[in-house]
Amino acid sequence: MSDSPEPVELASTQETRCCVVGGGPAGMILGLLLARGGVPVTLLESHPDFDRDFRGDTVHPSTLELLDQLGLAERLHQFPHGKVRALRLRTKGGTITLADTSRLRTRFPYILTLPQVKLLNLLAEEASKYPHFRLVMGANVQRLVEDGGAVRGVRYRDTENRWHEVRSTLTVAADGRFSKLRHLAGIESVKTAPPMDVVWFRLPNGANDAGEGAEFYAGGGHLVVLLDRGDQWQVGYVILKGSFAAVKAAGVEALGRSLAELVPWLADRVDQLRDWKQTAVLNVESSRVTCWHKSGLLLIGDAAHVMSPVGGVGINVAVQDAVEAANLLTDPLRRGVVTDRDLAAVQKGREFAVKMVQRIQGVIQKRIAGAALAPGQAFAVPWWLRLLTKIPILRDIPAKMVAFGPRRVRLRVEARPVA
Ligand SMILES: Cc1cc2nc3c(=O)[nH]c(=O)nc-3n(C[C@H](O)[C@H](O)[C@H](O)COP(=O)(O)OP(=O)(O)OC[C@H]3O[C@@H](n4cnc5c(N)ncnc54)[C@H](O)[C@@H]3O)c2cc1C
């Protein structure tokens, strides 16, 4: 047992094949795919529900294709949603289209935007059709159960502070950027410090606004991202790293004025931002662990790598990890034996894509976000970006990277009865 080893009395003990910790996109997709593949799964989520605000609300073509394979894409589209088909950079010098997803060869040539809770509820509903899938909400995992250096499960506290133990062949840490399990397992992550943080908030979408886009406005030492969410704009006001205290001290009205200066057509509604409580500050981080596993434990999604918000790919990278893990681990889990080699294969299958995306995000952060935020410097779109977006054989690369990452990950596991 690791971390604060005081003895605890157990209200219950349970055995399963795979214990997934964290009901975010990575954990819910993995839980569903394993259950569908006939593996008994227990999923532990610390929150009492999936409702969450100012999180990833984008579902990219890679995830939409997966949901289609699972017969869930149509149901997701029935919720009120927005569609983003182009990422555009607007400066005083003009507008360039950074990525145009409408030319991609896929049934879903757009990014769907909708509250993440809708996606998670849909996944939970689908997974609950399998009697060997157990979802425990309000289960706050606090301990690893270890035996001979291998992880054999976890202990969690329920909402009434009672302790429970889940023993499993494999434990998956899908518990997000502040992963408790990563900490308990003593796995360190290597961090880089991108030059920015983001203040997120929402403003209403007007009837005459140009829609179906993610708009980036750069100029005067400011950078703003607008994401079409149907009836609202999700606004990301990008600030220099660590400068939120100064932005806050200047007052929320000053932020509104600065926004209206950069995006004049929002001037008629910036006064609806009245309180800092309407905002959420994202401390931008980019990090990854060097080893995603130890005996009996695998890290996926944000627990293994925090992606910068550039391209809004966090959810989809997390989902791709889950699909790769399901592809490689369903059979070993059905047999009841998961080796370190099996776990290393998951890392091998995903690490290159994660590193490459983080590298590209790093360049964009430095050359575009960093340059746009530099005080007192006029922002000019770099020549290589202009070139990339103009040459026909190159111009679809950014859209492909945003939509699918460097490598398309396809589900290779059939639905099977429980092992
Ligand atoms: C403000 C903000 C805006 C973002 N915008 C975007 C975007 O537009 N597009 C995009 O793709 N990505 C975005 N992201 C990133 C995206 O949300 C993450 O990359 C994605 O959610 C990662 O999925 P995950 O399943 O790995 O982790 P998470 O979604 O973080 O899920 C982890 C889950 O584990 C649970 N948990 C944590 N600790 C425990 C514990 N001890 N016991 C049990 N359960 C636990 C949490 O409650 C949570 O439900 C944003 C992130 C933030 C913070």
Tell me what you see in this structure.
This protein is of the alpha+beta class. The chain has helices at residues 25-36, 61-69, 73-77, 116-127, 180-184, 244-250, 252-262, 314-335, 340-373, 383-390, 392-395, 397-404, and strands spanning 10-21, 41-45, 58-59, 82-84, 86-91, 94-100, 111-113, 133-137, 140-147, 150-157, 163-173, 189-192, 196-204, 213-219, 222-228, 232-240, 280-282, 286-289, 293-294, 297-299, 305-306. Helix 1 runs parallel beside helix 8 and helix 6 packs across helix 7 (252-262). The chain binds flavin-adenine dinucleotide.
List the helices and strands and how they pair.
Elements: E1 10-21, H1 25-36, E2 41-45, E3 58-59, H2 61-69, H3 73-77, E4 82-84, E5 86-91, E6 94-100, E7 111-113, H4 116-127, E8 133-137, E9 140-147, E10 150-157, E11 163-173, H5 180-184, E12 189-192, E13 196-204, E14 213-219, E15 222-228, E16 232-240, H6 244-250, H7 252-262, E17 280-282, E18 286-289, E19 293-294, E20 297-299, E21 305-306, H8 314-335, H9 340-373, H10 383-390, H11 392-395, H12 397-404
Parallel strand pairs: 1-2, 1-11, 2-8, 5-14, 11-20
Antiparallel strand pairs: 3-7, 4-7, 5-6, 9-10, 10-11, 12-18, 13-16, 13-17, 14-15, 15-16, 18-21, 19-20
The site of flavin-adenine dinucleotide has 36 residues, from α1, β2, β9, β17 and α8.
